[in-house]
Amino acid sequence: MLKCSTFTNALKGSLRLYSVVSAPLNICGKKYATDEKMTNVTQSIVDLTGRGLHLNDSHPVGILRDAIETKLNSTDGAFKCYNEFLPVVSVHENFNSLGFPADHPGRSKSDTYYVNGDQLLRTHTSAHEMECFAHIRNGESKQSGFLISADVYRRDEIDRTHYPVFHQMEGCRLWTRKPQDGHIKQLQDDLSKLKSQLSQQKTKIIVEDDTSQEGNPKQDYMSHDEVELCSQHLKRSVELVVAEVFERKLESMRREEGLEIPSELRCRWIKAYFPWTAPSWEIEVWWQGDWLELCGCGLVQQEVLNNAGFPAESTISWAFGLGLDRIAMLLFEIPDIRLFWTQDERFHNQFEKGLISTFKPYSKYPGSTRDMAFWLPSDKDFQDIHTNDIMEIVRTVAGDLVENVKLVDQFTHPKKLKKSQCYRINYQSMDRNITNSEVNELQNEVARQLIERFGVEIR
């Protein structure tokens, strides 16, 4: 477990102000300088760093991570697992090294938590990709692939499926191109092992895959055989993961009475576009009457490998990325992402290492809805106040006592020409009852900070 600041649970009696933390910022035992222009990390976000949910092998996110790592390494042990990268990275690592254009919206302060002008809380696990590539290139890692799992941070909306911190996993596998296509035999052997593994899975998978290269072309430097074998290895690897995690889910369902257990699992591959892979795909699984997207993947662009220091056209590689929280919510039937972060033992005692089980709600506490309507200052338009900035104020004031925030109305008064917005806030705790007086106090503090930060007029 990372050594980090103690997590502050749901607000109980004292309000957390919307203000950046003064220098220095202490994150996971390290101190970081802040600056007035760029720092937008609040204490409530700092308090979440280093919880390491993905490292807890009895937490749904950790159980899923371990299941994927174990299965992928069961064939030939080709993946080195990186799970303890610290969350603060450089702007170069998070954006520049991956080719994000200067005007990419992900770079904005409305989307990203900046520690200072040069450092931020990573927004994706790809921020560590170049370092992992370097370990392979320099011979520091004997494995030909890697898996990165980590908590990532984004300023985002507030609802049951979004949280300012979530967890990603990405995987990558590489082969060195050899003279006279000597690597082709290695690819064939590796693929044969994977197919053998798949044939031994209890869950029968029916796969639809009619993805031609039309509109999803291969890279020029790769031969047809390389593309075909590398693509098959990628898809069989992902299918192996899907078969494993859903087999564990089906085992859980078999322990309960009265459930209809599917006899097979239907999957399909569809074309996709990602800036760092070509060709690219997504895999979807038919589950409970709907197609669910689970993973994006593809063959790594040569430019990415060149940027990582590999000699031009010396390497072929595939990569995938997935969101651990979203899949864990599906498999464990978690109704609200905030539950992952609760410290209530009624939640944590339901899960154990290696098992996917269905969450049993231990209570349903009533919510309380309030509208926050305000006039914008005369010198501001709707786009001048980003929705994520409103969300961040509510999140910082109410913490995990807020279930949902939604912009429900905005208009311009026809005579006064004043612009109005209205946000609907639903306050609801997952662990306890909250009183009307407590909600009113929270609502008043949100209003006060909206006035102070944006100069709005409460309606």
Explain what this protein looks like in three dimensions.
- The structure is a single chain.
- The protein is of the alpha+beta class.
- The protein folds into two domains: 26-349; 364-458.
- The chain is built from eleven helices and 16 strands.
- The strands form four sheets. Strands 3-6-7-12-11-10-9-8 form an eight-stranded mixed beta sheet, with helices on both faces. A four-stranded antiparallel beta sheet has the order 14-15-13-16.
- The two termini are 47 Å apart.
- Keywords: Aminoacyl-tRNA synthetase, ATP-binding, Ligase, Mitochondrion, Nucleotide-binding, Protein biosynthesis, Transit peptide.
C-alpha geometry: globular
**What's the overall average pLDDT, rounded?**
91
User: Could you say which structural class the secondary elements and strand pairing correspond to?
Assistant: alpha+beta
C-alpha Rg, in Å?
Answer: 24 Å
Number of helices: 11
Output the strand order for the largest sheet: 3-6-7-12-11-10-9-8
| SSE pattern, N- to C-terminal | EEHHEEHEHEEHEHEEEHEHHEHEEHE
What distance lies between the first and last C-alpha atoms, to the nearest angstrom? 47 Å
Counting DSSP E segments of at least 2 residues, the number of strands comes to 16
> What does the main sheet amount to?
8 strands, mixed
Q: How much helical structure, as a percent, in the residues?
A: 25-40%
Strand content: 15-25%
How many domains make up the coordinates?
Answer: 2
> Low-confidence segments, ≥5 residues, pLDDT <50?
1-18
